[in-house]
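Posting for a labmate who doesn't have an account.
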Amino acid sequence: MAVVLDTDELPEADRADAVMSAMNESFVATYVPPENPAATVSARMEVWDFGSTSIFRSAMSGQRLIRTAKRTRSHPSSTLSLAVQQIGESVFDQAGEQRILDTGSLLVHDDNSPYEYSWTGLGACTCLFVRLDDLGLPADLIRDAGTRLRASPIYNLMVDHVLGMTRNADALSADPAAAALGVVSIELARALVASAAHDTRHRRDAMAATLLTQIRAYVGKHLANPGLTPAIIAAAHHISVRHLYKLCAGADFSLHDWITTQRLEGARNELAGLESRHRSIAMVAQRWGFSNPTHFSRRFRDAYGITPRDWRRLAGRDDVAEDSSSKA
């Protein structure tokens, strides 16, 4: 976690300028004047990275965020914002349409169109940032979806996902699977937008994308189970094995290769960590779903060009070197 700003650590006279500067950087040059110039400004902003995605949470006294047409041209955005109102009620204006967002409401908005976003009193919002290039959906489809989110059956799932990531952000962002969770977030965001959009073809694609997202999340939670098979995965999602493979093929996604890669990456990170030095290589392999140590060593060497034992030894030397330099 990185604390972008905590005004409790600043003199009151400097807080308004600090909030403006932090919000301008975080929200693509959006100007943020205080709600009341004479009022005390209070804000805490935090950010967690999950691969190419991130979670940004802000809790602050009443503010007004304005993104003008001039700023959208001079500072185009490369991300899509999926924001959940955590505390208070906010108002969002874009393209002549005003939306009132109460606690628990989800807002997906296009940062490349002018808007105004505000709340009064103490409020808090948590936002998932997804790169538009990763999302891979047309801009008009995204804009259309933003006005009809509640029509999507994925709406509540997305809200729960963003809030869940925020509640456990410290542990999740430090986990070796943080980047994989970012991938799941991208797929869920893509499914939400496609589902909410008016285009029926994208709706059909969204249902498949959502199911595949759920499958990946399920697999991620059960990587340590060496008996994890396509049949078990399919049964957990009430589909046939044939349909499971059809979903994966449609997304150009090899289920077997992905599971193996995730397990190897998890084992590799654990072998490099100080907290696992008391575990044998066989124990680490078993914790990541490899019941046969010899098979694990062979797959590890094929993937990374080094044996698990040599990797652990190399990582240990790096730790010693870092400790020595910090004490020098």
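Reply:
Got it, the structure tokens are right above this. DSSP finds 14 helices and ten strands in the chain.
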